[in-house]
Amino acid sequence: MVKNFKMVAKTLFGMEELLAQELRQLGASSIELGTRNVSFEGDTGFMYKANLCCRTAIKILKPITAFNIFTEEDLYKKVYEMPWENYMDVKGSLAVNATVFSDVFTHSQYIALKTKDAIVDRFRDREGVRPDVDLDHPTLRINVHIDRNICTISLDSSGESLHKRGYKVESTLAPINEVLAAGILMLSGWQGQCDFLDPMCGSGTMLTEAALIACNIPPNLNREEFGFETWPDFDIDLYEKIEEAALKKVRDFPHKIYGFDSDPVAVHKAKENIKSANLQEFIEVRQQDFFESKKQGEKSLYMVFNPPYDERISVNDIREFYSSIGNTLKRGYPGTQAWMITSNMEALKFVGLRPSRKIKLFNGKLESKLVRYEMYEGSRKASKQ
């Protein structure tokens, strides 16, 4: 009988419900929502599947123990007593990451250092040698979470953050995080139901994530490695079965995904990233000023984009820029459902359209709003009749 165990999937603010839904559809049990995380149960195969298939997860952690601590010495002692030789070889390497919510323990880096010391001291005392520390490519990533006096030690099954999908070979100045892009698309209700446009596509992240969703392609298929692949109990045959089963669920996409950008360099980078993700047959990118464009044909259109906020990319006149967004949508894009994310609430007022929906999110540390504008064919009144 394959044993289920508890796992914790970390995500971005506002994506918890989406992630819980993804985990449910993949077959997880005992799902509980937290803040920026979802806990659930599954077996080893499910852990592989969650890493491969979850679009809105940043990490999949496997808690291995929890205990009370009142001093840093308690932490050292409890970690030292754990059988680390079951989880890694002394010839391997480790990295420790800590998050701390406590009045007693206030410095996460110090907690990470104390944990690392306890692990390497145990190996040195038992075997005479100690494992290396490798922050970039360790064979074992360990996560320490302290909430008041409760310390949870987990193994990080993902390795590098899952937003690093493996398809991005080129980056622009203010690229959107892949997990955030996927989450925005899912919150908007995008499933591949019609043509899609990102009129300010930058390096093509939104376009790529839109195609991955439309075709039901596992988002992390292009990754070179997951953390669990360097664990002593990694079962490559099981992983390949999981991957094969996920690929059988890929579906055809009969519509087209388009991207515009006024910057030729961004267009080149977007094309390179789309090629790297093997999605050229579904996505077309061209140099085009959105403000001089209009919708092609009569079919309904889905639009999702991330305009400049005047934070990392500055615009000469941000109010005029946002006003032009509204005018272009009104004039040139009837029959379009348009979604955009911005952290510039002042500029948002100049769009001159009433959003039919607003969702609070964070883009990095910037509090942002995801808004929807529904551009009807003809007048709103006529469309309702």
Automatic annotation (TrEMBL):
Record Pfam families: RlmL_1st, THUMP, UPF0020
The keyword Transmembrane helix appears for this protein: no
Alphabetic keyword roster: Methyltransferase, RNA-binding, Transferase
UniProt-listed CDD domains: AdoMet_MTases, THUMP_AdoMetMT
The organism's place on the tree of life at top rank: Bacteria
Domain THUMP span(s) in chain numbering: 46-157
GO molecular function, one term: RNA binding
InterPro entries to which the protein is assigned, alphabetical: DNA_methylase_N6_adenine_CS, RlmKL-like_Mtase, RlmL_1st, SAM-dependent_MTases_sf, THUMP_dom
Name the UniProt record assigns to this protein: THUMP domain-containing protein
